[in-house]
Amino acid sequence: MFNLLRMDLYRVKRSKSVYVCFGILMLMTIATVWLLWLTATPQGNRTAVSMGLLAQEEVQKQQQEAALELEGINTQIMFRQMGLDGGGYACIFGIWLMLFVCMDYQSGFIKNIMASYQKHWKYAGSKIMTAAIVNLIYMTLHLTVILICNQVSGMRVPNARIGDMLFYFGWAWVVTTAFAALIVLICVFSRSVAAGAIAAMLLGTGTLVMPLYFLLDMFHIGGWMKYTIYRMLSEGPGCYASVKDLYVYAAGAVLLVLYTTAAGIVLKRQDI
């Protein structure tokens, strides 16, 4: 499997999609910081007035509203809200992974791999390990850009405690890697770019999860959906307060193993 992993990492390095998707994520982040700077800082307010985005008489009111919005905000909350909470990060990451996996089926390369490896589950394992590595790089660079933008913009949002940031970063990485395993499962089951793309968008952004949760909650049977990927990313703890907060690590790890095993079983039974 490690030969497959080495090959996959080499292909990731040479592919354009991984850089394009990361570029889109960074553009979204920088645009969000820029809008926050326009509304939350005196210099940004003056720039907004000169650009015609804000009337001069509205500046004082805008500054008061911005002060209320930034109250209690730190860099960890910025990191969460700029992609992870709303599902934007999962959606972009899922689309990249869908392209990476489905490329093997479209090119026919999957037949060569399966002919060389009798244990087909190694293919799924390699893809998920590759996704986990790319996920870690994406999240690290995403956080780095946010911290740099915070300093350069002059907003000076307070830094979160290192322990809280590491706790959140760790479980968010586990849960988003479980999401990657789900996308791999859907791709190897359907062998379809369309199915993978739709799954990444609908599942990543919660478009399917939240309506289902509201429906089930009407009958008081929606409690288990607390452990779905989207709701954990949106509502998971930002710091460690008690052992109960570790549920995100446990649930994320269970889903990761479950989806990885399912993908291996699908590959074993497929006639490729």
UniProtKB/TrEMBL annotation:
User: Which superkingdom heads the taxonomic lineage of this protein's source?
Assistant: Bacteria
Q: Which UniProt keywords apply?
A: Membrane, Transmembrane, Transmembrane helix
Q: How is this protein named in the record?
A: Uncharacterized protein
Name the PANTHER family on file.
INTEGRAL MEMBRANE PROTEIN-RELATED, MEMBRANE PROTEIN
Its transmembrane ranges are 20-40, 87-107, 128-148, 168-189, 196-216, 246-267
- The species this protein was found in: Eubacterium plexicaudatum ASF492
* Record carries keyword Nucleus: no
